[in-house]
């Protein structure tokens, strides 16, 4: 339990510090995450006295893992094109309208984001696509609601859906390692996904 609490604490610390980098350098949040994630990871490994093991692991697996990123590169290129085109359509305003109405009831908004993320993962939509789509849709809400709350909800919802989505990488790897049907693994993880996402929604609501 202590290790889980420490992990969650470091996760939220990373979010807060990434926002600090965003404000300091006047860049987008995602660019701040890209710039900050490496030094934060090194400092984290140092604080838990695992820096040597961390460096050894990366030295061993860096090249094989980088060589296997072609599919993700294609995913991100397609995702960027999709997001840019989606912003130019009239459909975005049709979807944003109910979200703007829910901004007066932020807890319901957060739960709706959580449930949509989980539903999308169950029908095979990649979590990166979901978080990108959600990020585009909630942009008008950044001036009305705490951006930190929205970031926490998006992050926890995506992580929760990644753990339970039948077609996601996490469940696929677990299925291969355990020899179990991925639908069975989804059944095992769905409770955790709901509770984890709900915890993120409640935390985001309390931080408003």
How does this model look, in words?
The protein is mostly helical and 208 residues long. The chain folds into two domains: 1-68, no CATH class; 70-208, no CATH class. The protein contains ten helices and no strands. Helix 1 (2-25) packs across helix 2 (29-47), helix 6 runs antiparallel to helix 10 (182-206) and helix 7 packs antiparallel against helix 8. The chain is globular and about 50 Å long. The two termini are 27 Å apart. The model has no long low-confidence stretch (mean pLDDT 80).
Chain-wise SSE layout:
Blueprint: H1 2-25, H2 29-47, H3 51-67, H4 70-87, H5 91-102, H6 106-122, H7 127-137, H8 147-164, H9 169-178, H10 182-206
Helix pairs in contact: 1-2, 6-7, 6-8, 6-10, 7-8, 8-10
Helical content class: over 70%
Order of helices and strands: HHHHHHHHHH
Number of separate domains: 2
Number of strands: 0
What's the N-to-C terminus distance? 27 Å
Shape by Cα distribution? globular
- The helix/strand class is mainly alpha
Radius of gyration: 18 Å
| Number of helical regions | 10
- Kindly report the average pLDDT value: 80
Catalogue the unreliable spans: none
Strand percentage lies at under 5%
Biggest sheet, in brief?
Answer: none
Concise description?
The chain has 208 residues and is mainly alpha-helical.
Features:
82% helix, 2 domains, 208 residues, mainly alpha, 0% strand
């Amino acid at each position: 339990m202590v290790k889980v609490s420490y992990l969650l604490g470091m996760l939220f610390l990373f979010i807060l510090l990434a926002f600090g980098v965003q404000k300091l350098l006047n860049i987008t949040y995602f660019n701040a995450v890209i710039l900050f994630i490496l030094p934060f990871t090194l400092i984290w490994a140092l604080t838990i006295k695992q820096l040597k093991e961390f460096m050894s692991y990366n030295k061993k697996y860096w090249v094989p893992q980088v060589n296997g990123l072609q599919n993700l590169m294609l995913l991100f290129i397609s995702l960027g094109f999709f997001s840019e085109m989606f912003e130019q359509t009239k459909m975005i305003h049709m979807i944003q309208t109910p979200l703007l109405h829910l901004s007066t009831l932020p807890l319901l908004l957060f739960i709706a984001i959580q449930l949509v993320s989980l539903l999308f993962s169950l029908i095979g939509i990649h979590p990166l696509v979901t978080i990108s789509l959600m990020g585009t849709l909630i942009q008008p809400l950044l001036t009305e609601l705490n951006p930190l709350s929205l970031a926490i909800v998006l992050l926890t919802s995506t992580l929760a859906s990644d753990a339970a989505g039948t077609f996601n990488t996490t469940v696929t790897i677990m299925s291969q390692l355990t020899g179990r049907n991925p639908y069975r693994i989804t059944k095992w993880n769905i409770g955790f996904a709901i509770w984890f996402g709900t915890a993120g929604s409640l935390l985001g609501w309390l931080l408003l």
